[in-house]
Amino acid sequence: MSTEPRSPLVLDTHELSRRPGTMAEVARVVKAPADLGTAVIGIPEGSALTVGVRLESVMEGVLVTGVVRGTAAGECVRCLEPLSEELTVRVQELFLYPERARAAEDMGDDEDEQYVLEEDLADLEPAVRDSVVTALPFQPLCRPDCPGLCSECGARLADDPDHHHDVVDPRWSALQAMLEQSSVTDETKES
Question: What is the pLDDT of residues 16-28, one digit of tens each?
């Protein structure tokens, strides 16, 4: 975890620390970190990411809940046209106090990845990344009924709905060749 205090996704929880029941709200627009997406769609690095979260002090640490908004850019998996999609995801993560995290480890309670406060700093980037990446469409489409590309020539089928190729089944290709030879022979006899 990178708890660089100058990073916009690292929040200082010092004012809440160790006082259960206290809370603070943070709203800011930050630049999106790198690799916030998949190979086909994601929020581009440096684009605007709106973060609105509530930090609540609880016995175990600081609970962070809120919403992250951004615009994902990518390409349609069927026709490869560029697309963009507004994305709003919920974020909820408990950042444990270091001693609580150690106690949980000692008890063997480490089934999930735990986020730990480091010097009262909570790094939201991993939680934001997890929420955004899982909310992105697995196979983004420019429209639900996108016909894709022609498998023969690569033409975009949405531009030409009547597009087709006369393709002979390879099992019949020998018969097609015989038919073409017979028409050539018939034409030469008539001449």
Answer: 867 788 899 999 9
